[in-house]
Amino acid sequence: MEDFLRLVKGAGLRGQLRNLYNLYVYFWRFALWKAFEQDPSRGGVLCFITPSSYLQGPAFAGMREHIRRVADRVYILDLGGGSRGAVKEENVFNIRTPVAIALVVRYGSEDRKTPAQVLYHRLRATDREGKLKELEALPPLEEIPFQEAPKGWQAPFVPEGGGEWAKWPKLTDLFPWQHTGVEFKRTWPIGPTEEVLRERWEALLKASPGEKPVLFRETEDRLLTRSHPAILSSQPLPPLATLGPGNPPEDILRYGYRSFGRAWAIVDGRVCGVPCPPLWHTRSGRQVYLTSLLTEPLGRGPALTATAWVPDRHHFSGRGGKDVLPLFRDREGQKPNLAEGLLEFLESAYGFPVSPEDFAAYVYALLAQPAYTERFAEELRRPGPRVPLTKDPGLFREGVELGGYLLWLHTYGERYAQGRTWPPQGRARWAKSPSAYPEGHRYDPETRTLRVGDGEVRDVDPEVYGFEVSGFFPVKGWLGFRQKRKAGRRSSPLDEITPPSWTPDLGRELLELLWVLEKTLETYPRQKELLQRVLEAPLFTADEIPAPTPEQRKPPKGKAGESQEAETAEEEREGNSGGRMAQPILLSSREAREAQGGSGEPASADAGPG
């Protein structure tokens, strides 16, 4: 395994290592050694059907390089079948993890300096029966219409998008520092109101020594008896076990929990498993956090969302990884997270100044819409959005104006205000407030009525209620997170502490969410039309614009950077000693049970709705 791990560490992807500690990867490593390395002078053949995360996941870059070094040719038959991600389809097995068949061949060549050729083909069928029929009807190997994957040692085992798409700059090259969002590893420190979180905190401090570990939900890295540095200042905090009632937490702040869904969080290094200090140390009144799915395919809806508050790991769609793109690398907003020289290049090309906010607004106007994910659905099967960057100054200005308006909406008036008045007035309105704290909600599309407990919100369009971000539904998630027994996972009895009654502030926040989605939907036709005109006009290719430096891809230095090193080591440790391991197809008793009709894998700890 060290051959796989070393290459990932060298590429600056230590935080991804926990994804490698997976039984199917161990079987791959043993089989590669047995077939190709035990006697390097001989040829060999290896054939597996396993989960397909190794095809393009960042954590598997070292595994892909090793396969390319020991083999001469690799055939990949992608069967798809993921039901946990944004794009759902049936699997050939009764599991939720996409799978692929790999045929790895070495002819006995001694050349280990030339990467193996990787040939890829994906089944067209999306249902189980269709896939099995397609497999039965496959022609001989040499007649299957394989496509060649990129030749780089660590490149994905899937082809690059063809045509003009492949020439456009990647989103991750324009915003070179990407970061994982915050992961608490327990649900109770995130709540609907600041008051509820203070009650939960105080209940923990008042509990008996025997009750505290259960209420807190101790984990290997977060124990009541252990001291941890503060998130905001990095100063040491006393262990929670030494605190009596009345001692405050480090802070309680607004939190970017889900797309369009604000929450509150106890920002305290003693309760947060993966606090991501660089995100906190760079927050400011100018900072904007863009989120997407950068390492898995996007589904329906926008390819980007935004928040003014430090985002959760699963902010974009209830799942996520290294998917946060901050606009600035510093608290002062003087160091944009943009490729070095990009703004100066654009100023020269357009003939007018371009600010970091302008550039982010242009990108947002094009990518934060379903027309983008629909038009490039095939290209986006390989994760990683690309940006059509116009050469037309007028089109760029239009994008800045439209994207700025959307970012004002999606940050709830905290950014891009420019004289606009918050909130935007929409059609949805309360006809009756809930008389008690709601236990659930229902929606009637015929009357366009949203019932929250015994309360009613009128004039809620079906498109607003059904608004989707890659499988996540913001209105359903917002209400599910705030009902008396919240939807999704609960980690502690402290989760049961909710507001005693429905408050005017909660009612106002729900209306603001509905109004934001109304106005967003009204803007989609303009965005679609702008995207079409941008695509018809001349575009910059990735080769024409400045590229980021390796240093720009790293988290900011200083306290944040120092903390990040410990944080990635912590993630690596979790993967090696206690992280959930996806099981290999046909080799695990649990997967064997699933293949006979058992349940799928559980969702991640913080991936509930909200």
From TrEMBL:
User: Where in the numbering of this chain does the Type ISP restriction-modification enzyme LLaBIII C-terminal specificity domain appear?
Assistant: 173-511
Q: Which Gene3D superfamilies match?
A: Vaccinia Virus protein VP39
Q: Where is this region: Disordered?
A: 423-447, 542-610
Which residue ranges have biased composition labelled Acidic residues?
564-573
Stretches of Basic and acidic residues bias are at: 551-562
Pfam families for this protein: Type_ISP_C
> What protein is this chain from?
Type ISP restriction-modification enzyme LLaBIII C-terminal specificity domain-containing protein
